[in-house]
Amino acid sequence: MQLEIKNLSQQYGKNKLALDNINLTISPGIIGLLGPNGAGKSSLMRILASLSKPTDGTVLWQGQDLIKDPSCLRHELGYLPQSFGVYEQLTAQEFLLYLAAIKGMPAKQAANKVDELLALLNLSDVARKQLKGYSGGMRQRVGIAQALLNDPKLLIVDEPTVGLDPEERARFRHLLSDMSGDRIIILSTHIVSDIESIADKIAIINEGKLLAFAAPEQLLEQMAKSVWRCVVSHDEVKNLRHQYCISHSVRRSDGFHINIVSPNQPLPSAVNVQPSLEDAFLFYTSLKNTAELASVGDDTLAAMPC
Amino acid sequence: MLNTVYHCWRADFLDRVRRRNYLVMLICMAVVTLVFFPPDSSGYATILIGGYRGIYNSAWIGATLAILNVLFLPIIGFYLIKNTIERDRVRGISELIAVTPITKAQYIAGKWLSNFTLLLGVLLFMSLTAIVVQLWHGEDYAINLLDLLLPQVLYVLPILGATAAIAILFETIKPLRGGIGNVVYFFIWIGLIVNIVSDTSGVGGIIEQIRQAITTFDPQHNGNTMIGIALSDDFNDGGIQTFTWSGLSYHPQVLYSIGLVMAFTGVVLALATVSFDRFSKLAEQAIAKGTNSRVQRMLTRLITPAARLFEVACNHFSFTSLVRQELLLLARGRSVWWYLAIAGLLLAQLLTPLDTLRTVVLPASWLLCVLVFSPMGQRELQSGADSLIFNCVSPIKQQFPAMLLAGLMLATFVVSGGLLRFFVAGEYFSLLMLLSGALFIPSLALACGVLTRTSRTFEVIFTTLWYVGPLNRSGADFIGVDPIASQQANSPVIFGVISIILLVVAVLGRRWQLR
User: What stretches in chain B show pLDDT beneath 50?
Assistant: First the structure.
């Protein structure tokens, strides 16, 4: 099972690129798509879900061209969009049965699956309540349930933890972990903690460009000697912010404890510390252009596979 | 295949039938049915053929209810159901549907079934009400369900099927999705009514059968058919004459007519399936590219100095600034061709003879603004910005007057050429009439928007009034097409009072919303 993205670009307006020549080959497992708001994650997700078409490039699902024939994927796809609506006068059970039917599931199988998912997502008690009375988190769980209805081979979830409380977020992460195996799960988020414990690979995207695509440990390894911690005054923080990528900052009685991402020691007092995925994410997304990425890659991150 | 269509129908139908506005619609239609069969003491009649009406037995009520439904359900029903695909699109349910394997034909079939069954519900409710009406009048207590329901099945159901299909087709064609489609459909319906009444295999056939039955006992009857409202002054001496109508006889021609309407429905659904974009973004992008940016740029350059001047003038006070923002909201999103058309009409107002100005140019100028005024009073709720807007300003004391003033300014602006002409010509009554019309339009829009929370209500009511009033020179003429008749009827005062009542209703409605 494989999803291949080749030279994918999407243009909007005259010269603006939502996606700029993305190339990825994705195998079964959980892929975390990480990027700041407006990075192009949703544009990529929508193309993969066959909701919109690129201006250039192809996407191959099991060798079949998804752009030319979106139907080759639709029976095997589960998709949770970033924002979606529901029929508010229906109950969660009725709504999920409706979506199961339009996904082509036989009635009996659909009824069993709906009950199973409602229980899994802790919605059994409110399954017969109209959706208009649901909170944001409950609606999001209905959204997650509908994405899992047809036991999808490719599951695309766009910002799935929006509106979920910490406990629900943790449960959702476990759910995805349990589900991964012989399927591809693409999870898009700008919250690093959502994916750092479950993703097999992470793709970092910003301004439509793919900046990195590697396993979390590879990303951390490549940043191994590039994260520095030091204690500085308020004024120094202001100056350092202009010169370096500051990934972490905490105010203490003795000053600001900050983490700086840099290939070189930024201050004599700075000590090397273990990098986090947040450091890697902020570092990559702080790069202004491809040339900058390439130049940094020469020093510390040369082997970053994209 | 059928399971998918069934669930597509079921979900959509349940979601709409459980809404309060469907219940309100049923109650309204029950009231219409009650009003359509008035007692003789009411002083009015709704259907007279050759000066007669049948006694209220099942045969008469069934036949005349079918006439009412064939004539008016296609228009009322259309506006009731025309939003099934749009709701999926606007609320984001389309995001979930588009990624599934459902085919365009399955989706359209499910949506059509939902539309059709909603209209069927209305028809059934009206038929049940008709039974109550018959028992209430007590002219004949024998309920004959076949006489009552068969005309609905043979004459009305096929028309409802076609209406359901046309509503779907309009939703799949982008230019017809919104308010323009609502206005276009109104004129199509007006155009079709004459054909429906004269069609001998449909309603025309029912009327003809009744007329022949009357001829057998009164060959000298006046032969006229009146469907609408006739006051007692218009009746023949001695009031309404009644007779016992024994019921319709059905000819094979009726089946031919049904087959024809069903074939038409099939063709419309096939067209809708082809034109449905399956919520494709690409289709929208392609349409977006079609806008004429060069003309737009030129127009922007022309308007900018005046807009700047207006901005400077408004920015001194918070209220005038709010009025300006409301005005911008009203005008925003219009196509460049709309601005050009308004500019052309303003020029025509200055150049055409006064008679043409009254009868053609001024009515056209305001008709062109239907979609500009229709979002008034409900835009905040529809866009979900109500919680932000209602917290920022006082919705009753500030925002409401600002909306009204913006609407009044726009309504006045689009007929400003006419106002100037009337002033120069010394026709002060026409000038006053036009100003009262300019107040009436935003008042009506605000009341419709606040009370019904949809732009369609204003679009339908305004277009109907526009057709009945200025175009047919009736008492609903809010423009003053016939100044003498308007002066005799004291129309500026009447429309002024109506406007105030509408505004009070709108304010009360908004207060209720805020609670």
Answer: 282-284, 286-291
3-state secondary structure B294-311: HHHHHHHHHHHHHHHHHH
pTM of the model: 0.80
Domain ranges of chain B: 2-286, 295-514
H or E element: which one contains B54?
Answer: strand B52-54
Partner residue opposite B3 with nearest CB, options A12, A87, A101: A101
- A101 touching chain B per CB within 8 A: yes
Cβ neighbours of B99 in A, within 8 Å: 49-51, 74, 77, 79
The secondary structure of B177-222, three-state, reads: HCHHHHHHHHHHHHHHHHHHHHCCCCHHHHHHHHHHHHHHHCCCCC
Confirm or reject contact between A61 and chain B (CB < 8 A). Answer: no
The percentage of chain B sitting over the pLDDT mark of 90, rounded to a whole number, equals 50
Backbone angles phi, psi at B243, to 5 degrees: -150, 170
**pLDDT tens by residue, A10-52:** 988 777 888 999 999 999 999 999 988 888 998 999 999 988 8
* Beta strands B241-243 and A154-158, pairing class: unpaired
Q: What digits encode the pLDDT tens for the residues B430-485?
A: 999 999 999 999 999 999 999 988 888 898 899 888 988 888 777 789 998 888 98
Least Cα distance to B155 among B76, B74, B66 occurs for B66
Domain limits, CATH 3.40.50.300, in chain A:
3-215
Q: Are B50 and B221 in contact (CB under 8 A)?
A: yes
3-state helix, strand, coil in chain B (%, to 5): 75, 5, 20
**Long-range pairs for A210-219 at CB < 8 Å and ≥24 separation?**
A210/A22, A210/A23, A210/A24, A210/A306, A211/A284, A211/A285, A211/A287, A211/A293, A211/A306, A212/A280, A212/A284, A212/A304, A212/A306, A213/A24, A213/A305, A213/A306, A214/A304, A214/A305, A216/A277, A218/A305, A219/A277, A219/A280
Task: Find out whether A148 and A78 touch, Cβ atoms under 8 Å.
Answer: yes
Nearest chain A Cα distance for residue B149, angstroms: 31
Give the tokens for residue B358: 């009254």
CB atoms B11 and A89 under 8 Å: no
Question: B412, exposed or middle or buried, with CB in 10 Å at 0-12, 13-18, 19+?
Answer: middle
On the question of pLDDT at A302 being above 70, the answer is: no
Q: What is the CATH number of domain A3-215?
A: 3.40.50.300
Q: Which long-range contacts (CB under 8 A, 24 or more apart) does A230-237 make?
A: A230/A257, A230/A258, A230/A260, A230/A266, A230/A267, A230/A269, A230/A270, A230/A271, A231/A255, A231/A256, A231/A257, A231/A258, A231/A269, A232/A256, A232/A258, A232/A267
Instruction: State how beta strands A201-206 and A77-80 pair.
Output: unpaired
Residue in this structure with the two tokens 């949703």, named with its chain if needed: A42
- DSSP collapsed to 3 states, B59-97: HHHHHHHHHHHHHHHHHHHHHHHCCHHHHHHHHCHHHHH
Least CB-CB distance to B91: which of A85, A90, A97? A85
Helices (H), B315-399: 318-331, 336-351, 354-356, 362-367, 370-373, 379-382, 386-392
Q: Say yes or no: B92 contacts chain A, CB-CB below 8 A.
A: yes
